[in-house]
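Morning. Coffee machine broken again, so started the prediction first thing and wrote up yesterday's gels while waiting. Chain of 73 residues, entered below exactly as on the submission form.
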Amino acid sequence: MVKLGTPSVVFVHEPFERLARAQMRQLGIEDSKPFVIVYPVDRPSADSQETVRKKAKEQLQRIPDLLKVQQWR
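Came back before lunch.
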């Protein structure tokens, strides 16, 4: 989508950040900083559903700003 000029965001748990960035490099998307939101890993055995929802909501609120700063050729 990024290569087609469509603003895009990758939303990944922390352990998968390096993999997501590596795959973007392989696809020719070198500067992946404005495209990746790293989401703290849920701990279902320790976090309440309310905590998990709050973490997700906090991260999702970042998406509009990331989409606005992306520059297209």
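Residues 36 and 59 are 11 Å apart (CA to CA). Going to sketch it on the whiteboard this afternoon.
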